[in-house]
Amino acid sequence: MKNIVVTGKDGQLGSEFQALAAHFPEMNFHFSDYKELDITNVDAVFGYFEEVQPDLVINCAAYTAVDKAEEDADKAEAVNATGVKHLVEGCEKFGSRLIHISTDYVFDGSKNVPYTEEDAVQPLGMYGETKRAGELAVLDSKIQALVLRTSWVYSSSGNNFVKTMLRLGAEREALGVVYDQAGSPTYARDLAVAILEIAQKEEKWPDTTALYHFSNEGAISWFDFAVAIMEEGGLSCKVNPILSAEYPTPTARPHYSVLDKGAVKKDFGIEIPYWRVSLKECITKLIK
Ligand SMILES: NC(=O)c1ccc[n+]([C@@H]2O[C@H](COP(=O)([O-])OP(=O)(O)OC[C@H]3O[C@@H](n4cnc5c(N)ncnc54)[C@H](OP(=O)(O)O)[C@@H]3O)[C@@H](O)[C@H]2O)c1
């Protein structure tokens, strides 16, 4: 029986692991959020690892408020960079493997073909900067670890674009959504399933660290995503395409952040669902 620590258990991704745990009886999950394990506290990390003796740590804990991170940079740094460093140190000491989640927001979006793991990063804001620092804390270490970058995460729990669109779509007759930012949605359930599949294929792991990209299949704009959400949700709200300049945010978003998933599919033999199929599954669950 493998001891698996999941940090950030109450977030979108962490919640999916809790929902899936019963299907993986061979895995002994230890779920924690910052009340049980604040990853910014190095003593708490070492104490928790001492008690649990993890074989694998899946880090779902993160500071994810992209705009707020500009004025709250210390907190974003503490969770997304220093906290990850603490986990790496814990893994070093206790011989644990690590799967750490990162983001498409490490890119500036200047490409117009999918980003590979070899592409240069250039974050546009503090969130992306601190997430990049977290990536490096893992990738520069000597532990056995994978960094999985993902994008546009949504789920049936937590706050996300899908739930916001369903709420606004029920309240309004029309709304404007940007069509000059392209990417790929990721259903947190699909990401959690892929992570558990990857975790079990230990023989395919490199001896040290590696970086991979993961999202659902397909590439769309937020506008396309909103239109599909209204359709799947049975809502008549009209979605109008607008430019990012018409919807300014404190932090700029990459105009293009589609991730190339060729490496993770090839190295781990996983299949990734098409975004629209997963969206339908999530909305069906929400409506039930
Ligand atoms: N959401 C997206 O669109 C998106 C896109 C690309 C990549 N990602 C990455 O995917 C991963 C999962 O994202 P998500 O959407 O599941 O995030 P989320 O819903 O915001 O969940 C993150 C969880 O971490 C917890 N947390 C914060 N500080 C902590 C600390 N010091 N110690 C322990 N736990 C702490 C949060 O608790 P509180 O809520 O109480 O603060 C929350 O439960 C993250 O690494 C994120 O950067 C997300």
From TrEMBL:
Assigned keywords, A-Z: NADP, Oxidoreductase
Pathway in which this enzyme or protein is active: Carbohydrate biosynthesis; dTDP-L-rhamnose biosynthesis
Annotated catalysed reactions: dTDP-beta-L-rhamnose + NADP(+) = dTDP-4-dehydro-beta-L-rhamnose + NADPH + H(+)
Annotated RmlD-like substrate binding domain residues: 3-286
Superkingdom assignment: Bacteria
Major enzyme class: oxidoreductase
This enzyme's EC code(s): 1.1.1.133
Keyword Protein transport included in the entry's annotation: no
A GO molecular-function descriptor: dTDP-4-dehydrorhamnose reductase activity
Reported function: Catalyzes the reduction of dTDP-6-deoxy-L-lyxo-4-hexulose to yield dTDP-L-rhamnose.
NCBIfam families according to UniProt: rmlD (TIGR01214)
Family: Belongs to the dTDP-4-dehydrorhamnose reductase family.
Protein name (database record): dTDP-4-dehydrorhamnose reductase
Species for this entry: Algoriphagus halophytocola
Taxonomic lineage from the root: Bacteria, Pseudomonadati, Bacteroidota, Cytophagia, Cytophagales
